[in-house]
Write a structure and sequence with these properties.
This protein is an alpha+beta fold and 178 residues long. It has helices spanning 12-21, 48-59, 93-109, 132-141, and strands at residues 3-9, 28-30, 37-45, 66-68, 70-76, 84-89, 122-127, 150-152, 154-163, 166-176. The protein is built from four helices and ten strands; from the N terminus they run E-H-E-E-H-E-E-E-H-E-H-E-E-E. Strands 3-1-9-10 form a four-stranded antiparallel β-sheet, with helices on one face. A four-stranded antiparallel β-sheet has the order 2-7-6-5, with helices on one face. It has a two-stranded antiparallel sheet with strand order 4-8. It binds adenosine-2'-monophosphate.
């Protein structure tokens, strides 16, 4: 069964911009340009019935379209050895609203609550033994990162399929904003 998650996919112009930023940190596995996304909710493996109920519930979510820009960079975890590098957003408010609406759907269906607090981000790289100085230099160099703003017109139910040492993402269903 595929791992499912709910995400906003980025327009080409934004993904292109982020791809230009990806580099300069030894030990970083940079996320492929066409996989860059903003996760609204990780679901994990769901049985077929639950996955269908989630898709139906998501289809009933209503929220106006909104504008978003990708802004700034950071790392996870915020303290201790950095394991990933990410880009942030310029306005988390509509994302939190959308996340809350999605969460209400999932609670109704009985999908277990997320253990992570929602922190909107676009993962740029996973790190392994990356020299701290190079990570800090990356963060400093791209602190003022700011992409073009774009209109978020939909969100998607995505599946992640593990292939040798990596994973590929597929859009299962798109849900338009109003
Ligand atoms: P991440 O990029 O911050 O790791 C697909 O795996 C997407 O779901 C990724 O964007 C990942 O976020 C997110 N995700 C959230 N919680 C996860 C979890 N517990 N395991 C794997 N991926 C998770």
């Amino acid at each position: 069964m595929p791992r499912l998650f709910i995400a906003i996919n980025l327009p080409e112009v934004v993904a292109d911009h982020l791809a230009l930023v990806q580099g300069g940190v030894p030990g970083a596995r940079w996320e492929a340009r066409d996989k860059l996304h903003l996760t609204l909710r990780f679901l994990g493996e769901l049985d077929g019935g639950t996955a269908r109920a989630v898709a139906e519930g998501l289809a009933a979510v209503t929220q106006p379209r909104f504008e978003l820009g990708v802004r700034g960079v950071g790392h996870f975890p915020p303290r201790g050895e950095p394991r990933s590098l990410w880009a942030g957003v310029d306005d988390p408010t509509p994302l939190h609203a959308l996340h809350d609406r999605i969460e209400r759907v999932l609670i109704r269906i009985g999908v277990p609550a997320d253990t992570r607090k929602f922190a909107p981000h676009v993962t740029l790289a996973r790190l392994r033994d990356a020299p701290r100085g190079r990570v800090l230099a990356f963060l400093e160099h791209h602190a003022l990162l700011e992409t073009a703003r774009f209109e978020v017109v939909d969100f998607a139910l995505m599946s992640s399929v593990r292939t040798a040492g990596s994973s590929s993402y597929r859009v299962e269903q798109r849900f338009p904003l109003t």
